[in-house]
């Protein structure tokens, strides 16, 4: 590089799904480089400090970490084309998982509330 050179980086901003290496049915989502998480509310949260402001849930509030996919769909389908399972917002980075109340938004914006990043999807991979 020399003075005056310009570097352009093109980051594809698309919804992508990622499985955990040890459990391919446990899936999280990203939009471009942004990790997405689903907000689970802030009821009964406890705030403490240990040099930094830390907010933790006093108890688990989600009924299930397992999401049943529509008929004839598998976790593999979700990994290959996650957009078909979501309704996207036209005004913000927000993705509602169809058939649920879960809305996924950039994780870095989530403060002082419960969240879920990875979820179990059934049926699992074909095979």
Please give a structural write-up.
By secondary structure, the protein is mainly beta. Helices cover 5% and strands 39% of the residues. The protein contains 1 helix and 11 strands; from the N terminus they run ββββββαβββββ. The strands form 2 sheets. Strands 1, 2, 3, 6, 7, 8, 9, 10 and 11 form a 9-stranded mixed β-sheet that branches. A hairpin with a 2-residue loop joins strand 2 and strand 3. The termini are far apart.
Question: How would you sum up this structure in a few lines?
Answer:
This protein has 127 residues and is mainly beta. The protein has one helix spanning 75-80; strands spanning 15-20, 23-31, 34-39, 45-49, 53-57, 66-68, 86-88, 95-97, 103-106, 115-116, 119-122.
Provide tags for this entry.
mainly beta; 11 strands; nine-stranded mixed β-sheet; two-stranded antiparallel sheet; 127 residues; globular
Secondary-structure element string? EEEEEEHEEEEE
Give the distance, in angstroms, between the N- and C-terminal Cα atoms. 50 Å
| Unreliable stretches | none
Q: What is the helix fraction of residues, given as a range? A: under 10%
Alpha carbon gyration radius:
18 Å
- Which class do the helix and strand fractions yield? mainly beta
User: Could you describe the largest sheet, including whether it forms a barrel?
Assistant: 9 strands, mixed
Mean pLDDT value: 85
Work out the number of β strands. Answer: 11
